[in-house]
Amino acid sequence: MEFYGITAICGAGPACHLGEGMPKLLTLGDQKVLPVFGVDAKLRAFVGVHRALEAAGTEAFEPVLLGETYFDVAEKISAAVEAGEVELVVFDPVLNAEGWWVSETFEWPAEKFCDFFTAVRPVVEDVARRREDIPADRQPNPEALDKALDWYMGRMVAYIHGPSRMYSELKQLLDLKD
Fold first, then answer.
1. Which residue from 55, 73, 107, 137 puts its CA 20 to 30 A from 85's CA?
2. Which domain does 163 fall in, by range?
3. Is the pTM here over 0.85, yes or no?
4. Residue 40: which pLDDT band, with cuts at 50, 70 and 90?
5. Pairing of strands 88-91, 33-36
6. 8 A C-beta contact, residue 36 and residue 105
7. Is residue 36 included in any domain, yes or no?
């Protein structure tokens, strides 16, 4: 999967700076919300709505690749988060015809997003190396990282919910008595 932000060309709209040599990215309103897209159709629709709101003939927004994993996104946006330019990351937001953000697929406080993916990256890389038989001196590819992250998150959820909860749900489902 690839994740994209939107460059704010010609100073169109509020923006955050990713760091030296990096483009400024569009943010939503005064809330310091960074839209990030993993679904191409939602990215095109978002840019299309913004272009429809602009004067005819202007091209003020263009997609920019942020990376192929959540880890890449966290790394790319961390400077803007640390500078206080981004407070919330919203994945695949949808705008209405007036250009207002009306829904999202997933949102995460930006600092927590970056902290989480920075913290779990070494563990997930290790899981990917073991599951895909990748030597310790090589980086796992994005697909291996995605699979390892899915596995790791599944294990985390199972651990958090714990066997007692699963047992009580199974007991209720099967209508078992104590």
1. 55
2. 122-173
3. no
4. confident
5. parallel
6. no
7. yes
